[in-house]
Design goal:
264 residues; 3-stranded antiparallel beta sheet; 17% strand; alpha/beta; 5-stranded mixed beta sheet; globular
Length: 264
């Protein structure tokens, strides 16, 4: 049975190609109109049945995934890769760790979108950085947005390996980009974050100018509180003062964000 591909289908293909692998909830937020996620389950199933998308269950448990069943992940089929002119990838997209990395990056983008929909930020612009697109991959993404009248330009590094000099080289290369003011490093748990902070502190010292442009958080913290309301940390494990807001504003909006993530 053939179907007429519509504009929304091509948006789905665009975002799956950009992120390599996505969950249904990611796609719903990315193609949302009027800042509201859309119901697309039936359409995704149809695109899968007609070989436009590949669909499988993620093999492992994801700590931020709140339902008992393992999530369905979507990738582009060979048919669709040809249709949209997507370059070939050498990555094994069926590998659970490869999938997890890309899903975590998509999570961060979704959380930015949720913050924007709730009015915490505005003028959000996200750029996924991929080597096969000819873009420097010192960071996984570059994000700009406005918060309390201030423009923030950040680079996102997801689950960086703690490897001393190679990590510092990556951070310094990222900071050399004119369109980044800070780098946000996101770890998978508190232990990994602590090791990362100690690694950076030992390599460059706590007084380095580099440290003043780095902040740290975990996926669990971000998934619970959002990108803006999370208590980001500095290299020396103190709370970072990235955003200026009152405690009353923070507390008033915290419950709203948690409800949005749960229903996304």
């Amino acid at each position: 049975m053939a179907i007429q591909l519509n504009e929304r289908d091509h948006l789905i293909f665009k975002y799956v190609e950009e992120h390599q692998v996505l969950l249904e909830k990611h796609i719903a937020w990315l193609i949302a109109a009027d800042d509201k996620p859309v119901l697309i389950r039936d359409r995704l199933r149809k695109l899968f049945y007609l070989d436009y998308l590949l669909c499988e269950r993620h093999k492992n448990t994801l700590p931020w995934w709140s339902t008992p069943t393992k999530p369905l992940v979507y990738t582009l089929s060979t048919l669709t890769r040809g249709l949209v002119g997507a370059p070939d990838t050498e990555l094994d997209m069926s590998d659970s760790e490869v999938q997890r990395h890309f899903l975590e990056i998509a999570n961060l983008r979704m959380l930015f979108l949720i913050d924007a929909s709730e009015g915490f930020i505005s003028e959000l612009d996200w750029q996924t950085c991929r080597a096969d697109r000819g873009v420097s991959q010192h960071v996984e993404a570059k994000v700009s947005f406005v918060r309390n009248g201030v423009v923030h330009r950040v680079g996102i590094i997801n689950h960086p390996a703690v490897e001393g000099e190679s990590l510092i080289d990556r951070l310094e290369a990222a900071m050399a980009d004119d369109d980044i003011d800070m780098v946000w490093l996101v770890s998978r748990d508190d232990d990994e974050q602590s090791k990362l902070q100690k690694c950076v502190a030992q390599a460059v010292g706590t007084d380095s100018k580099l440290n003043g442009r780095l902040v740290f958080a975990t996926h669990g913290q971000l998934y619970k509180s959002g990108m803006v309301k999370t208590r980001w940390q500095t290299v020396d494990q103190h709370n970072a003062s990235i955003f200026v807001e009152s405690i009353q504003e923070y507390e008033a909006k915290s419950c709203t964000h948690n409800r949005a993530v749960a229903s996304a």
